[in-house]
Amino acid sequence: KPYPEIEAEKHLGRCYADCWEYVAATNEAGKRFVLTLNAWNDEAGLAASVTTTVEVVRAPTDEEKGREITLALLAASDTNCRYQDQVLKVMRDAGYTGYTPVGSRAFSKDGAKHDGYGGWAWGDFLDRYTVAEDELDKLQNEAERQQMEALGVVKIGSHNAWRRRSLRSPIVKLVDGKKVVDFQPWFDRINGGKAPTYVVIVLGGNGVWAQRPENYQYAHAVDAELEKAKVLLAKLRAAAPETVVAVCTSMGGSLDQDSWGHNSYCWNSAVLANKSFLDYNRRMKAYIDSLGDDRLVFVPITQNVDHLKAYPLGRKSGNAMHATFKGGEQLGDALFAWLLHDIETRK
Q1: Which of 4, 47, 116, 236 could be a cystine partner for 79, CB 3.0 to 4.6 Å?
Q2: Taking a C-beta distance cutoff of 8 angstroms, is the pair 54, 3 a contact?
């Protein structure tokens, strides 16, 4: 018992066939419990054993509840399951009146603002800058028109108007016809010019799983994501030295092969995709740990999603990468738990 407050022999929660579930009691706030998971083989005996610590956050103080906290989110289409809205809801339920999510868009008038864009990976936030065809029609200067055409032109019809919000990265601007990453204009738009208290990043999935067999090895895909992540994180830290940057585990995906068959036909599988996500998560954590920056942290949240039941189901599973609203609640609760702990421990 390394910590006297740990009840090592207590059996926590409930074990089901496919998961373990635990809801802390009020009188367990502030306690830590060590859990051990053993994998047994009938012939070989104990095959593997791992331990982890469950720490139950304490109730927030009145000072913490009223503290001004802004949180920006850089993510992809996983935001469609509304985990950012769940974070806002439970923060409000916990009494955090000073908490404000900031960003370029929201799914509803009262929803949490964020910057999540379908199909985006780390590199899209660094270099995505394209132009809608109707924007070119408004340009009178031919030289400027040619300059914009060189960046890429997208035709947007009434049936795909949603694509307009994904044309350009919120942190990329043009300077003398060249794309430049600049966080300050984004801060100006979303947070009155100040860097947010927190920037949470949930990326990695799109850069890894969508690689086709004729042009990929998963290790190379993870390499590419990490290199882009290093650039973005360095630029963000330079622009916001006091901001707490939380890089989360990639969204992962369903463990049901039918869902992967629906999304990727025969060129990907539940096993290969999820092995690549695990590789990405391990290597990203190792990189962040190596920097020794106490305001840059790796946050595991996607292990809180039920990878069998929190994805769309029909006659066969229908979506490998996009969780349902139930999955969004699970993700939001995990992010909320980390956020409360960070607020509590970081004065």
Answers
A1: 116
A2: no
Report phi then psi at 66, rounded to 5: -90, -5
The C-alpha atoms of residue 276 and residue 283 are separated, in whole angstroms, by 11
Instruction: Compute how many other C-beta atoms are within 10 angstroms of the C-beta atom of residue 216.
Output: 15
C-alpha distance across the termini of the chain, in Å: 28
- The closest alpha carbon to 199, from 164, 162, 166, 171, belongs to 171
DSSP single-letter state for residue 64: H
Which amino acid, residue 86?
Answer: Q
Mean pLDDT is lowest, of 98-102, 194-198, 203-207, for 203-207
d(CA 103, CA 170): 9
Q: How far apart are CA 309 and CA 274, in angstroms?
A: 16
Burial 302-321 (b: 16+ CB within 10 A, else e): bebbbbebbbebeeebbbbb
The 10 Å Cβ neighbour count of residue 238 is 9
Assigned token pair, 201: 């990043």
CB-CB contact of 39 with 48 (8 Å): yes
Residue of 203, 279, 288, 310 whose CA lies nearest to 248: 203
Does the structure show a pLDDT above 90 at 269?
no
Paired sense of beta strands 178-181 and 172-175, if any = antiparallel
- Mean pLDDT confidence for 43-67: 87
Per-residue confidence (pLDDT) for residue 3, from 0 to 100 = 46
What is the model's pTM? 0.85
Indicate the Cα dihedral angle 273, 274, 278, 280, nearest 10°.
Answer: 30
pLDDT at 1 over 50: no
